Predict the structure.
Amino acid sequence: MSLLAHSAEDPADGRTHLLHNGTAQHYRRTVTEAVTRISAKIAGTTRPFTGVTVDGLTPTVSGVDLDAPLHDAAAALDELEDVYLRDAVYFHHPRYLAHLNCPVVIPALVGEAVLAAVNSSLDTWDQSAGGTLIERRLIDWTAARIGLGERADGIFTSGGSQSNLQAMLLARDEACRRALTGGELPDGARPSDVLPRLRILTSACSHFSIHKAATLLGLGADAVIAVPCDEQKRMRTTDLAAELARCRREGLIPMAVVATAGTTDFGSIDPLPEIAGLCAGYGAWMHVDAAYGCGLLVSRRRELLNGIEHADSVTVDYHKSFFQPVSSSAVLVRDRATLRHVTYHADYLNPRRMVEQRIPNQVDKSLQTTRRFDALKLWLTLRIIGAPALGALFDEVIDRAADAWKLLADDPRFEVVVEPRLSTLVFRYVPSTDQDPDLGDRVNLHAREALFASGDAIVAGTTVDGRHYLKFTLLNPETTLEDIATVLDLIAEHAGSFLAARPRPTLSAR
Ligand SMILES: *Cc1c(COP(=O)(O)O)cnc(C)c1O
């Protein structure tokens, strides 16, 4: 190795980039430069996406020599324009209508800047102090909005999938404990004797993370029972009752019923009061996955969540309907004692004696150890904007979805699946003349891809009864009905050119 290469690795150079009392000015200048560029970027975005392809962008990213630093933040930000910013997908754009990504509120970005710089880790009190208390206040605040009662608790997580996993873990361990102490099993029975009998009942429209959680938790391949939905895509409680009765007959243990308050595709809300009644009757843990619908907690439509207060656990994704940046999520529980199933003590971190000393170590309740202070974003949001204004933002997109539904229902070019409860619309373009059902699939798949490639708008896709549909997820109050009408016209145009370019079927081929 040459001497030159060595001298370039001067440790003094690295130290000027560490944040400490001697570099605070450097920090301020550099971060201000980045924020200035991003604000210009956000202001100048004319489309949600450039339509760049994987093959188009890969050489740019691969071409960066990670062993040849630029030693200059401005130069690195210039480069970032090429490798990321120019072609990023911008959720704040009014014609981004695809997934459950929200535009973010500025107070949360202030929180993001603060939490990254102070860099508290919320696992133990001795790494976060006030951060721990702030997180606990927000958990209590959310639990109170849900109505979980005096013994409620919870923890911030990385997202709804992790919240659901933790809820299923608690439900599993509670079910095992009850089965092993309930006197129904032979003496000496072990958790491994119980696991194969555990069942999770959830609607056919629930989130795939429930299946993933079941697998991670060592439950069998048929552990998840998909309960059919009604035509509004809500869990059919008559079928749930029948499945619960069948479990009992067959000696199976319904360890949890997962109700969804805001299904990812349809925004439908399962009948929570009826499900709560059935859970009580069968001694099943009631989990409500409100990853999407949690924004109703602060909206004028709060009554749509009636019954959620009976839950044993609840998933909320603030990074969906509370307009928070990724990531910000929580799992709440009715009985804080159930969180002991994730409590482990390490002498170096959270020794048992700290519990007696009442030192609040959040790691005792979490699947993670080192953990971001995501709660700060919600804290500053509530302190600066307040809950009613957040709820009003969510209400606005729900209103918009209702108007868009009328637009779609009146438009002969499209067929729309269900009237939305929240802010999603699942619909498809219907080719007017052809009877070939596969053509409908192909034309909708094409329209979605062509729109994405154009970058003019981004919509999602899903399947309903095995057929391809398109989906709008509205989470941006800046999206107007005109934007939606424009995107529908674009979809129809792409669909129309696909149909026009298709070779005419010959009579013999028919
Ligand atoms: C988005 C979503 C999840 C998963 O949440 P992540 O934050 O993406 O992990 C779970 N359940 C429902 C209903 C969702 O919409």
Observations:
- The first helix runs from residue 3 to 7.
- The two ends are 72 Å apart (CA to CA).
- The chain has two domains: 121-385, 388-501.
- Residues 100, 159-161, 164, 207, 209, 260, 262, 264, 289, 291-292, 317, 329 surround pyridoxal-5'-phosphate (CB under 6 Å).
